[in-house]
Amino acid sequence: MPRGVFITLEGLDGSGKTTQIRRLAAWLTRRGQEPVLLRQPGGTEIGDRIRELLLDSRSRSLDSMTEMALMFADRAQAIAEVIQPALNQGKIVVCDRFTDSTEAYQGGGRRLGSEVVLKLHRIICHDLQPDLTLLLLPSFESSLARARRRNDRMETETGRNENRFETEHDAFYRRVWEKYHEIADREPDRVVLIEGDLTIDEVHEQIVESVSERILSLAEKS
Ligand code: TMP
Question: Is 131 helix (H, G, I), strand (E, B) or coil?
Fold first, then answer.
């Protein structure tokens, strides 16, 4: 049985990933290839509990190393429980964030560096690599404004600030942004960079084009 296809979506908070994943999933389903969808952190029962701990504004004292270790703990569970079994069954897996997020946020944002993240990935994730990563980077300013609006809305509605990361400073996001660019430059075969303030339809078209090419080329190889 050929291995399935592993697609990840990456980007800053507020980059429109959620909308694009929904549209990509609908497009794949229309083509008879219903994908397995998951997000990180989260996506399994244990992962959802780890997510709560990670994103809750009350977890302010979380050390950066603890944060990184929890991201990997969540990922190990997702790989064992969902991603690897689905790929073994030849399915398409679409994951909202993966190790590039840890490299960008903890490696770049928290300044832990890429080396430790990539080393942990090799050990904890058995170096599982996506076949295709769609990196959404609208302008820095518009991503940040969108993420903060969403966070304020959530706080007004629920009385809780659910995303600790969205209250970070601009300088933190600048470092995340730069690290994402570094990853895209380093791995052009895997990472497709979708940049600028495009419409939802324009981004969707670029995603569909990349996915079509990748799925076709993998199908030809198997
Ligand atoms: P999201 O589900 O809205 O994308 O939020 C998840 C948050 O967690 C987002 O701010 C990015 C952050 N994150 C990390 O810092 N490191 C990671 O490895 C992952 C997967 C997410």
Answer: coil
Distance between CA atoms of residues 54 and 48, nearest Å: 10
In ligand 1, the atom with minimum distance to the C-alpha of 98 is 20
**Helix 64-78, helix 45-55: angle, nearest 10:** 160
Nearest 10 degrees: Cα torsion 200, 203, 207, 208:
60
Q: Which fold has domain 5-221?
A: Rossmann fold (3.40.50)
Q: How far apart are CA 154 and CA 182, in angstroms?
A: 32
Question: From the CB of 102, is ligand 1 less than 6 Å away?
Answer: yes
Q: Give the N- to C-terminal CA distance of the chain in Å, as an integer.
A: 9
Residue 61's SS3 state is: coil
The kind and range of the H/E element at 38 are strand 36-39
Residue 75, exposed/middle/buried by CB under 10 A (0-12, 13-18, 19+)?
buried
Q: Mean pLDDT per 10-residue run, the chain (222 residues)?
A: 87 92 96 94 95 85 95 98 97 97 97 98 98 93 78 65 71 94 97 94 97 76 62
- 159 CA → ligand 1 middle, Å: 21
Answer yes or no: pTM beyond 0.85: yes
Domain-by-domain residue ranges, the chain? 5-221
